[in-house]
Design goal:
Elements: H1 2-26, E1 46-47, E2 55-56, E3 66-71, H2 76-91, E4 96-100, H3 114-128, E5 132-137, H4 142-146, E6 154-158, E7 164-169, H5 174-194
Parallel strand pairs: 3-4, 4-5
Antiparallel strand pairs: 1-2, 3-6, 6-7
C-alpha cells in the first residue's frame, strides 16, 4: 500500500500536468475571455492624442455602443486592419475609438516626443484609413494593463452603459466582423434603441 502511494501520487501529478499542457497547446489564445467581460470600463483620466488639452474618462462610453481599438503605429497588424475598420466606420456607422500607446515613449525604448507620435499617427491613418472618432492617449499604458491587454491590436466592445461585453484579441477583418463582433455590435445597438437612448 505504501509503495502504491509513493508511485501513485507522482504519476497522478504527471498525468494532470500532461493534460494541462496538452489543452494549452491546442487552445486558441484569441478565444480567451477577458476577466472584465460584464464589468464597467476601468477608471482612467487620459488626454486626447491629437488635442492633449482634452481629457477623457469612462463617461465617454455612455450613451453609445463603442468598439475600443487598442493600437499603435509600431504594430503591423494594426495597419493591416485599418482599411476594414475605416470601411465599418464609414459604411456601417460603427463608433470606433482608439486607445493608443507607443512603446517608444517608454524610457526603455527611447525618447520619442508626443509631436512625433502625432505625426506618425497622421501618416499611417492618412495612408491606410482613419476609422477613429478620436484617440485616447494611454501615455504610460496603465489603462491597457487594467484592461488586461497583452499586445495589439485588441478590441473591446462596450455597450451604451459603459460595460465591456466582448474582448477580441487580434485584427478585425470581414470574417471576424461577420461571425463574431458584428452580430453582438448590432444586438447592443438594438438594446440601446429599445432602452430609449439614441446614438
Amino acid at each position: 500500500m505504501k509503495r502504491l502511494v509513493i508511485f501513485g501520487i507522482p504519476l497522478v501529478v504527471f498525468l494532470l500536468l500532461v493534460v494541462f499542457l496538452f489543452n494549452g497547446l491546442f487552445s486558441d489564445p484569441r478565444a480567451l475571455d477577458s476577466q472584465l467581460k460584464g464589468q464597467p470600463v476601468p477608471a482612467f483620466e487620459l488626454p486626447d492624442l491629437m488635442s492633449p488639452e482634452l481629457t477623457y474618462t469612462p463617461e465617454i462610453f455612455k450613451g453609445k455602443v463603442t468598439l475600443l481599438n487598442v493600437w499603435g503605429v509600431w504594430c503591423v497588424t494594426c495597419a493591416v486592419e485599418l482599411p476594414y475598420l475605416t470601411e465599418l466606420a464609414k459604411q456601417q456607422n460603427v463608433n470606433i475609438v482608439g486607445l493608443y500607446f507607443d512603446q517608444d515613449l517608454d524610457p526603455e525604448f527611447g525618447t520619442k516626443t508626443v509631436s512625433r507620435v502625432q505625426q506618425e499617427v497622421r501618416e499611417i491613418t492618412g495612408r491606410f484609413g482613419n476609422p477613429y472618432q478620436f484617440h485616447i492617449f494611454d501615455v504610460y499604458r496603465d489603462t491597457a494593463l487594467d484592461l488586461g491587454v497583452t499586445g495589439a491590436p485588441e478590441h473591446f466592445l462596450i455597450d451604451h452603459n459603459g460595460i465591456i461585453r466582448m474582448h477580441h484579441i487580434g485584427d478585425i477583418n470581414q470574417r471576424v466582423w461577420l461571425n463574431k463582433v458584428g452580430p453582438l455590435y448590432r444586438q447592443l445597438r438594438e438594446e440601446m434603441t429599445r432602452s430609449g437612448e439614441a446614438e
